[in-house]
Design brief:
Elements: E1 14-15, E2 21-22, H1 25-30, E3 54-58, H2 63-72, E4 78-82, H3 91-102, E5 109-111, H4 117-123, H5 130-133, H6 135-138, E6 150-151, E7 154-155, E8 158-159, E9 165-170, H7 171-177, H8 185-198, H9 212-218, E10 226-229, E11 232-234, H10 240-254, H11 268-272, E12 277-281, H12 284-292, E13 300-302, E14 323-326, H13 332-347, H14 349-352, H15 363-376, H16 382-392, H17 407-420, H18 425-442, E15 446-448
Parallel strand pairs: 3-4, 3-5, 11-15
Antiparallel strand pairs: 1-2, 1-4, 5-14, 6-7, 8-14, 9-12, 9-13, 10-11
Helix pairs in contact: 8-10, 15-16, 17-18
């Protein structure tokens, strides 16, 4: 998950096959997988086959997935390399640029540190066409769950977990204070302002992390990441779907209803103890509330309705739900073993049910995972909470694309920074819009305000 779990930390790259050892960037250029080229771009040569040994790159939360594969498939030799797991980091992209120049060194499979990474990985020809390489796996997802992997007419990745937002609320406090669970974004805004006024220090959301624009702007279907064609994007913060989110956030920040911290900040666990409600990904329940923040059991609950803008249909954002990619530069036994790895990490219960903290995106694994979560009985009403997770996938607007610019990174460098520094939301919003358009153009896109 960071992906959807979004685990932050210092940049690192270490082997975890049998013992932890630091690898230099120079060593990686010469190692990684044994591929010497690829068949998808003119800058690379023919596909290669090392004879079966594969190298996979994973962030810290996915190391258990790779280790579980190693245990399940001792017949397949594998190198497991742990990479930087910071959302928005560029170290992975920089290393791939070196591999592209050397025409060798690419990992056979990777868990992308940021979902946006799939944009450059696809553009450079690294990502295999999963539509043809693993059509049975593609067929195991709903179209909505795998929508972000559909790039220029083909599925270029496989999703690890589904990360739709639900409305989380502290049901124990709601009962104690006599509040009614909001069903619309307007009701959420009004109640959040009331909570901030009547219970100073208690909060109804976070603005300081890279998932905040997903949480609020994607939920409003605000055009920040709309792909018109491979070279053109739509960005228009004056669109009514953006201005309604802007107005809401302006009201909430002025009332001090939202924390300026991010959900992964050092103080987040302390701040989280005062969380009354917030839109947040389904993985917040297990990973944030239970494992990281250690909130009291039998307090948190997910609303069965989500939040709507028009009073009818719920519309929520999406935070993470990490992506697995496979190299297009391999063939033969190496390709076959990489495909076996991909099948394991997206559809085998040894990872997706027993170890993963997020709702599997692969449909057949969802109910077994939910059954396992139910046995823990952490939530105020566990059965009712878990029942909201899978349906929430269909509340997420599906025209959001992962692109060559990082919207979350621009948010943290403008909005989060400005609000933490005491600036008003209007200033932060202007800075965000200016920076976002500039970064999109710098990435080579033509920016339009309408499709």
């Amino acid at each position: 998950m960071k992906t959807s779990l979004g685990v932050h930390g210092k940049s690192r790259l270490s082997s975890v096959t049998t013992a932890v050892a630091t690898l230099s960037i120079a060593g990686l250029v010469l190692s990684g997988c044994s591929s010497a080229g690829g068949a998808t771009t003119s800058s690379t040569g023919s596909q290669t086959d090392s004879g079966g040994k594969i190298t996979v790159w994973v962030d810290a939360p996915r190391v258990p997935a790779a280790d579980a594969f190693k245990t399940a498939h001792p017949e397949i030799p594998i190198n497991i390399v742990q990479i930087d797991s910071t959302v928005g980091a560029t170290t992975t992209q920089q290393r791939f640029a070196q591999f592209d120049a050397a025409k060798k060194g690419w990992p056979d499979a990777i868990f992308f540190p940021s979902n946006d990474d799939v944009a450059w990985a696809s553009k450079t020809g690294y990502t295999a066409n999963m539509s043809t390489d693993t059509p049975d796996l593609v067929a195991g997802y709903t179209k909505t769950a795998l929508a972000s992997c559909y790039i220029d007419g083909a599925y270029r990745c496989l999703r690890n977990d589904a990360a739709p937002d639900v409305l989380w609320y502290n049901a124990a406090l709601f009962k104690q204070w006599g509040y009614t669970v909001p069903k619309t974004w307007a009701e959420y805004t009004s109640l959040a302002v009331t909570i901030a006024k009547d219970h100073p220090g208690y909060i109804s959301g976070f603005t300081g992390d890279a998932y905040a624009p997903n949480r609020y702007l994607w939920a409003s279907d605000c055009p920040t990441n709309v792909s018109v064609n491979p070279t053109t994007v739509q960005i228009n913060l004056q669109d009514p779907k953006c201005t309604r989110a802007e107005s809401m956030l302006s009201t909430l920040t002025a009332a001090k209803a939202l924390s300026t911290d991010g959900i992964f900040d050092a103080d987040a666990a302390k701040v989280g103890q005062k969380l009354v409600m917030s839109p947040g990904a389904v993985w917040w329940g297990d990973y944030l509330f239970q494992q990281t923040w250690k909130l009291p059991a039998k307090t948190m609950q997910a609303s069965p309705t989500g939040l709507s803008w028009d009073g009818t249909t719920a519309q929520m954002g999406d935070e993470g739900g990490g992506l697995w990619g496979m190299s297009s530069h391999i063939t033969g036994k190496e390709l076959a073993n990489a495909e076996t790895f991909m099948k394991f990490v997206v559809s085998d219960p040894a990872w997706q049910v027993k170890l993963s903290t997020g709702l599997p995106a692969f449909t057949a694994m969802q109910q077994p995972w939910l059954t396992k979560q139910a046995s823990n009985d952490f939530y105020y009403d566990t059965a009712a909470t878990l029942a909201t997770f899978a349906p929430a996938i269909n509340t997420v607007p599906n025209d959001y694309s992962y692109l060559l610019y990082d919207t979350g990174g621009e948010w943290t460098s403008t909005v989060a920074k400005d609000l933490a520094g005491g600036k008003d939301f209007a200033t932060a919003w202007t800075d965000f819009g200016t920076d976002l358009v500039a970064k999109a153009k710098a990435a080579g896109y033509t920016v339009v305000t309408t499709k």
